[in-house]
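Task: fold both queries, return tokens.
Query 1:
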Amino acid sequence: MLKPISTAIAITLIFLLALTLFLERAWGKRPGSALKMTKLSNQYNIHVNINYLTVNGYRLKLDLYQRKTSQPNPTLIFIHGGGWIDGEKRLQVRKLIPYLEMGLSVVNIEYRLANIAHSPAAVEDCLCALRWVIGHAEKYNFDPDKIILAGESAGGHLALTTGLIPASTELNLPNAGEETLKVAAIINWYGITDVQDLITGSNTREYAVTWLGNQPDKLEIADRVSPLNYIQPNLPPILTIHGDADTVVPYSHAVRLHQALDQAEVNNQLLTIPQGGHGQFNASEEQKINQTIHNFLRQSQLLN
């Protein structure tokens, strides 16, 4: 006899399906996401709005898609974009589907935006989210040796900083936890790699200026949160996806990261989308990207 689904899980599933259908209609492309979510729901326990951090009275939450398994499962932390000034985790559901189809558990997190706290708050929050995942590995069957970070735009930047910044830096919040920070791979979707480049000179972007604010040491902070300043040997494998016509985050950020990683002999790959802008790739481009991600994770031995 089938066990009745709990009211909380039913409400959660209905919300996610409704949201996915809404996004399909709003975007007018990639139909079938809601059907995929329906099929995947039988393979996952869904936990919404788990509080992972409270800082200065502000509660930060995550959504967890826990694969139904008794064994430790590879787990991906997804970080939304929005230039550190915008974006919501609840609007990322469709983007999680390829990772769920690969059998990964997925943790979809939020972080403090610039209207709540300027840089480096978002970086600090994401490091805390990683600590939360590692600290709850046994409870939710996360495999602590197979934690993957992924994010788009500002989220790509935060995936890189979370995976590259040493635990010894001052970017870890007091009393954040004692867990050893360790990730197995990073998937960087058109992320910022040199923050100072976006607040001074010809590549200045208003969203970056807003995130840094009027802090007197903003140039120093920009350097401290720039992934390019943490390149060294023995980093986890990194896959970067970037359109060479991106006007929001310059394609040069991806190229410079790729070159620096190559020089440090770090296993990495740059997938360039010809004439690709800032996301919103077409169906064939998305298929190629998802296949590249699958191959990247398989080669890194991160898929069960």
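Query 1 returned. Query 2:
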Amino acid sequence: MAASLAVSVLMLIGKFTAYLLTGSAAIFSDAAESLVHILATAFVAFSLWYALQPPDPDHPYGHGKIAYFSAGFEGAMILLAAAGILYTAVQDLLHGPELRRLGLGVLLTALFSLINLLLGLYLIRVGRRHHSLVLEANGRHVLTDMWTSLGVVVGVALVAWTGVVWLDPLIAIVVALNILRTAFQLLRQAVAGLMERVDEEDTRRLIEVLDEAVQQGIISDYHQLRHRRTGDQLWVEYHLMLPGERSLEEAHAQAHRVEEAIQQRFPDRRVYVTAHLEPEHHEVAHPAGHREPEDPLKAQARR
């Protein structure tokens, strides 16, 4: 992450230099996006450090959810950059841009595009390997910066070739609209994580494991399945139903077999399971009635 931040600072200096040399609103849009990326990368670096802190009495589940705050912060910063770009572009459309030395601006921006491509692909690959939303979001931001730079290269080259100066602010507006899309994607992802939206693939795998346990006679049934994911951690809870005549030791052994099967189905995650054991005749165990919370995943558990 330190390398990403250092590269971003150098890119920012280069892009603002290109803007000062050319007066291009399109190149300014590229530089503004890079400034936002530096602020976001600095917050990402803090988030990575904070997420690795061990659980404490105030945060017994750890600190991994800061990844969603980080993604939301980055999305908000991109929104601000888009607003600034749109303002500058509209001003140039109304009053006319003053452009100069566009050839040099094209060469510098093309070089920055290549650097961003390599850096963005690297961050996304590392983020997916380690299930780090923070790194993956940062990598996506870098690739957005790359596409922004590439669009600016084509646009400014077209302005230099045709002499149609109003194309420059028009390109800046297109760039702003493009990065707005990325901003909303990051914000949606952040909100989904903070609201603990479940991953459908995780649900499918868990139901498969539990259904197999029923079919193999390890357990009689199950319900109240819930799960949530934070980074590379998967927290799972459920109620397992077993024959009432089994001893506590036998029931625990069967529950442990189910837990091991889940661990094997998620080899790249740190899985934490909490199981509540019940006799298979649930209504007999609670003759006076037993109020349980809603079971939202029950409909998907069709065996």
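Both queries returned. Flag for query 2: The beta strands are 221-230, 233-242, 270-279.
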